[in-house]
Specification:
The strands form two sheets. The protein has a five-stranded antiparallel beta sheet. The protein has a three-stranded mixed beta sheet with strand order 1-2-3. It is α+β, with helices and mostly antiparallel strands. The chain is built from four helices and eight strands; from the N terminus they run H-E-E-H-E-H-E-E-E-E-E-H.
Length: 174
């Protein structure tokens, strides 16, 4: 499999040149089924619309065909991080402070490797977290293996759609 750091270094400037922020690059699959997943967002809305995904996909398809950094055959998937988004950058933990999240670490932190609770922000390179069982804990960002927001009413309220125009309008056949 290709190196994610190298893929990210190749992909991120292209995504930024289009005016988006790169959230995550992930390559997964086995056998003949591999997927290169690119998550991106608009800096102002933290979301993407389908046209944005298509724009990024076209730009990256051309680049990836030219450079050919992945030996295996793969499918390119470009998407928004979604409402229960992964937390992949240190500033994500600050931006989503006050919301519930799950964090898994690569090493034991405060006697645990799995945390579920509320994000309390960032101090230096440590995520300030209130775990439902362990209480307040500082989790070094370098030890985060996987982290994502938990779908709650508060998160839904904070993640309003880009536009609700036409949401109440519908046609019926009589």
């Amino acid at each position: 499999m290709a190196d994610i750091a190298e893929l990210t270094a190749l992909i991120e400037p292209e995504v930024k040149a289009l005016g988006f922020d790169l959230v995550r690059v992930k390559l997964f699959g086995s056998g003949d089924e591999h997927t290169l997943q690119i998550m991106a967002e608009r800096p102002d809305t933290k979301q993407l619309v389908i046209e944005d995904c298509a724009t990024i996909s076209r730009r990256l398809s051309d680049l990836l065909d030219e450079v050919d950094p992945i030996e295996e055959a793969y499918r390119l998937e470009v998407s928004s991080p979604g409402i229960d988004r992964p937390l992949t950058r240190l500033h994500d933990f600050m931006e989503w402070a006050g919301h519930e999240a799950k964090i898994s670490t690569t090493e034991i932190v405060s006697g645990r490797k799995s945390f579920r609770g509320s994000l309390n922000g960032v101090e230096g390179d440590d995520i300030q977290f209130h775990d439902n069982k362990a209480g307040d804990v500082a989790i070094p960002f370098a030890l985060v293996g996987d982290a994502k927001l938990i779908l709650t009413d508060a998160l839904i309220s904070a993640s309003m759609p880009l536009s609700s125009d036409g949401a109440d309008e519908f046609e019926t056949e009589e």
